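Why do we care about 3D structure at all? Because function follows from shape, and shape follows, mostly, from sequence. That is the central idea of this module. The next example makes it concrete: a single protein chain, its amino acid sequence, and then its structure expressed as tokens.
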Amino acid sequence: MTVVFDMHDGLARALRGRAEAWDFLRAFAAHWTRPLEPGDGWSAEAVAGAERRLGVALPAALREAYVLFGRRTDLTSNHDTLLGPDELYVSDGALVYRVENQGCAFWGVALEDLERADPGTLIRPDLADKSQERWEPWEPSLSAACVSMVMSETVLRDDGLTDHGEVAEGELDLVGILRRLPDIGPELRWFSGPDVLVREVEGGFLDVRARTEEALDAVREAIPADWLNG
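And the structure:
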């Protein structure tokens, strides 16, 4: 019996909490890349070693994410980078766990929130005027941030089944083969269709990931965009 992966309902459940988020990511990985397996995550000892080095306890959500899929760079580091446990560091009152690919931004968790099991996350842009840099609220929970990260890194995987383009505001809502997904990720909108996942960044820039060339071509034909690879 074939199990159908429902992106919409699965993502809606993933936003309820950590356990649901990890269940979603297991199904997501199996559908879009390959199933999660033992060895895809860091060992509990490696995570504990990071805690000893830093002198802080990591939130349960971060420990669980590292152990479940932290070594799967195809899910975490196609564009931006999820730091390994040995790379975690503290900066200006926050634990930094992810960096933008050109060092233009950093994601973290406030030190005062580390005792929470699934704390909200912060972002800090790298500015020319360092006096203006601040940690700003980002995702409402670390588990949601992990889901958004994995989805984003998947649509940015460069292996021939991705493409990028721009559309006018609101145009994706009129594309019949796409279904709007629950909101996740600041400044992002998500859509899914037959074997495709579409991320719309604020301003109308699109990132599309398909499971087949036929599905990717169908999106290109349905969306009037100037496609980068089409």
